Each structure stands twice: as C-alpha cells, then as structure tokens.
Give the backbone structure.
Amino acid sequence: LNKWPTTTLAKTLGIKIPIVQAPMAGGATTPELVAAVSNAGGLGSLAAGYLNPDDIRKNIFKIRQLTDKPFAVNLFVSEEHQATKIQIKQMCHIIEKACVELKVQIEPIEPPYAPEFDEQLKVILEEKISIFSFTFGMPSQTWLKKFKKNKTLLLGTATTLKEAQQLQEQGIDIIIGQGSEAGGHRGTFIGSTEDALINISVLVPQLAKYINVPIVAAGGIMDANGIIAAMHLGAAGVQMGTAFLSCPESGIHPKYKEALLNAKQDNTVLTRAFSGKLARGINNKFIKRMQIHEKHILDYPIQNALTRTMRKIAEKNNCIDFMALWAGQAAHLSKAIPAAELIKKLHKNVVAQLDQML
Ligand SMILES: Cc1cc2nc3c(=O)[nH]c(=O)nc-3n(C[C@H](O)[C@H](O)[C@H](O)COP(=O)(O)O)c2cc1C
C-alpha cells in the first residue's frame, strides 16, 4: 500500500493514480469531466450506454481534443426484454398519474427502446478505444476477440464472485467489484439482483482471494478513507461515481447537484421505477408513488424509455421529484470542487494517511 499511487493497475491502465472516474450515463460524464480526470492522472470514463453511435463518436472526438491521456468508454450490455402493447399502455397511464403535477402525456413507444448494442460496439472498435468498460453482462466472444485483436483493455463489472469468475474465464483484464453501496444501476447479470447486494467490505476480499486479475472497488467511496479501506480489502484501485457528480464539469442538472450537496446519510434507496432495472438513488416522489405498482414495472430498457419524457420535463421545470437522482450511499460526503482538484486532494490525503500509518 505504501507504493500508492504507483500500482500495477495504474501501470496497466497507463495512468498515474489508480482512481477511475465511474462512467455515469444520463449526462454526467461530459468530455470536460472525462478529460479533466485523465489530465489530472486518474482514468476518466465516458458513459456511452444511452448514446447513439454518432454521439459516441462526437464525444470521443471532443475528449481527444481535450486530453492525450488514456480514458475509458463504457457501454451497457444489451439484454432480453419484452412487453405487450397493453402492458406498455398501462404503464404510460401509471407514469402519467405518478407525476400528475407535471401534466405530461406519456405516449406508448415502439422498439428499439435503446441504441443498438452492436452499432455502439462498432464505434468503440473503429475508434480504437484503448480501454473499454462495460456492465449488465458481457459482450459475446466474437466481440471480445475483436477487442483483444485491437489491444483494447477490457474492464467488466461484477457484483458477485460468480460473475467475476465468468468475466475472468472470458479473458476480461480488470474486474470492477460493484458493492451494494454503489450509486446507479446494479451490474448484476447472474441470478437475482436482490441476492447480489453485497457491500464492498465483503465482496472485494472475496474477489481479491479467488480472482487473478486486478480488482477495482466501486461503491460509496468518496474520500481518502474510502480509498485506503478499499486497498486494505484487496482492491488494486477504486472506481468513484457519486464523488464526481457534483463537480462543475459534470453535466447533471443543477437541482440534482443541489440534492447531492444537501443529501442526508439515509437518503438513498434501491428502485426499478425509473428504468426497470434496480438502481440506487436519492428517494423522491416518483419512487415512492411507484412502490404500489412494482408488479407492473416493465423490463429494462422499456421502462426507461417510457419515463424519459417525464424526466425531461422534470428537468425543464427544475423539479427533482421526477428526476432520477442516482447516487451512492455516501452521497452526503459530496463536495462541489473541480474534478482535477478532487483527484489532487484524494492523492494528497491518501499519501499523507499512508505515511502516518507507517
Ligand atoms: C449517476 C450514475 C450513473 C451511472 N451510470 C453508469 C454507467 O453508465 N455505466 C456503469 O458501468 N456504471 C454506472 N454507474 C455505476 C458506477 O460505475 C459505480 O458502480 C458507482 O458510481 C459506484 O458507487 P458510488 O457512486 O457510490 O461511487 C453509475 C452511477 C451513478 C451514480
């Protein structure tokens, strides 16, 4: 640990400080945020899960204008989903009622409900992205082979040892162990998501013991204490999401930033209401009102597509009651400081604390 920040993970990724800024879909990870983190010696990550191929290319182009340092691009692995026209209509009605104050009309939508995964993968390959991270599963062997041929480093997300073993077997280079504290969507892809809610103090030591590739800990890490704790558990590095949401470079709505800065210790909950997939965020009116409709919530990404209009109008109206306020369990430690300053401060404080320990 006293070698921090010069770890093998940092060397493998070609960065100075083994801190990964988590990819955060929904607008947070602007090219400015990604580049600021990479320029400061960490690893910036562009969340491209919700972006169409053209927008992914545009973002990559912009990041490359802002930094010549390594950065990652992240995608959501696509999964089976289905809903009947009747179920969709019923959910439109439920959502309309759950955000009645917005007076919005929710229209049924036709597939595709999310950008084509293969088309997104093609961009990563063609742009010769050096670090590709993913969650919700694993791309097919055919794609993995293409990335290996391109010398792309692959980072997969696991919420259990079983998932990590599967990622390792398929040749994934680095595994992100996502604890139950984490903000945003659960990356679980084997078994029930509820059974895979393991906090990092339990998950990371298991992964470090049985997995041979480096483990990056994610979930509730906001400061030097969190980083040192994760390293003691056996992590080679950390991935921090919520900590970067309130940076000026992050693209989230100002009211969402305000909610993070005002967050209390017990503010976050797990919900499927916004997207159909279990995710952690700050509790609000929409989540509470949707609790009685849990049985009717549709598969990801159909539910996500159906709540989009509501979320957009909520942003326009500065109304946090109907925005998805994804955040981890340590959101109350949020600070509004520039990303480079945050990295610098984390670096300084980790080194100072390690020195004291020696
Ligand atoms: C707003 C938000 C959006 C997220 N979007 C993604 C994403 O697009 N891809 C991904 O792999 N993880 C995503 N995550 C999860 C992060 O990778 C990571 O697991 C999490 O931020 C760690 O917990 P923390 O927020 O407490 O630091 C997101 C997290 C948040 C808070």
The mean pLDDT is 97. The chain has 14 helices and eleven strands.
